[in-house]
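Margin note from the TA: students keep mixing up input and output lines. Inputs are the sequences; the output is the structure of the whole complex. Example:
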Amino acid sequence: MLLDIHSLSKIYGQSCGHCLDETGERQGRSICPQCGSVVAVNRACLQIEGDEILGIVGESGSGKSTLLQLLYRDVEASSGEVFFHVIKDKKNRPVNILDLDMLQTARMRNEMMSMIYQNPRLGLNYLFSAGGNIAEKIIGAGEHRFEKIRNRVHHFVDKIELPGTRVDDYPDTFSGGQQQRIQIAKALSSSPNLLLLDEPTTGLDVSVQARILDLIKSLQKEMGFAMIVVSHDLGVIRHLTDITVVMRHGSIVEYGLTDQILEDPQHGYTQLLVSSIL
Amino acid sequence: MTEIRFAILDEDAKKEIRRALLKAVSLPGYIVPFASREMPVARGWGTGGMQITLSIIVEEDVLKVIDQGCDGSVNAVNIRDFIVAATGVETSAHTDEASLIQTRHRIPERPLTEEQILVFQVPYPEVLTTVEPDTGRQKQIHAHREYSRLWVLLYEDTAQFGESRISNRYPVEVNGHFVMDPSPIPRYDIPRLDNNPALLLFGAGREKRIYAIPPYTRVKPLVFEDRPFLVESFPGQCCERCGANNVFLDEVHGEDGVHYFCSDTDYCDNHQKRTDHAA
């Protein structure tokens, strides 16, 4: 097992103590009627194996992206535990990554876990060149030899099918799809164990979407990392993932093999979601 | 009531600055904020260095003030005259005679001793400003030594130009922890910060910051493991005045071409005297 999520929750606002019970799938709401707090993620439990690809689907506001942000520690969790089995303490027991300090979090992000955002502006530093962006992650993982860094940057620039002559150009000078590919190269340059993707192709045109999905998939086969893909596009989920969870009102309402969920949805909301594909 | 208080600053101000200095010396390379009093010159004209000098100077001190290595430049002369007017201390242009040296952007050529203190005037104390404008996050980066963004600048320069483009203010790592701005000294002076027997104090008056390198501290420039750190070199050139060729030279462009002179005027005078003797 790679990732083990226990009862992970995120509440925005002063919690009254009953928020988690007053919201969720059964109650059909994510705003606590007693105190008005917003429960973005409600006691989520998940497990992921070392090379699995997990998809998260759900309507907007269902807590998909927040769940990713909690794992990447962009956002502090309210309660719960997350064991990431490549991070262990001195007694070789997995550590709850929600307890990591800033330095340990930075190390985790530099060496073990990467995030690809919907908007490349969140994942890239536009003051650095494309190569500089990719190098930042490699340097962050402790490499201080120029030739090694440069070779690795070129390796990933080749992988994402960017012309090698443009490696020192700035992200602004690339198209949206190219920027997204640079972000992918940056995320993968430190050989992470887990890749988080938050709507990686939303907003790109269909032909570019397909190429980026193929790229991600072939890199995953080659490098063998686990992925969590958040998308409201069932086509992306079908194309990429092995296992799918469906979220609504902050809760996980259905969990299963992707084929099974898309062909034979059990939960009423999932049935609605699958039947409403254009 | 016409007499000037010794060293102008009131005792509370001196105490505050000395306290900041103590903290700076205890945490080599760490930037300590201080109050930065009004001085009789505008901020940005060496007030940080002046305040440090005035708060640690004693009557027995022998003062030397240099600007780009030169004792005779207008700024050096004015600052020296001001400090003498406020304290009555002895001055000297000779590096070996001075106990307290205030400098703008050079380290004297003659090696310093344990008895000496070198005070730098600093325009931009924070090395991270170019890569992280947020002061709160700058502190976190320093605390966790997450300097990868400075390395990215070095990477980009090396990728495009073969080496770093930084000519002065080259970032240095102090005592294996903090990366700091060594003030705009040339690269030539960077290796001379390492393991220096003198106490090195840095004052930024406008930015209200003080930092320090205690004697015999490890200081190394940020440089890739497989790349050498290059300093200015002047192949085939020597000082036209004294003939020295192993020092940092000023390049003077005149109508009749380029001339080279020692940047450190005291070194130049001494070297000339010695060669005259020999001849």
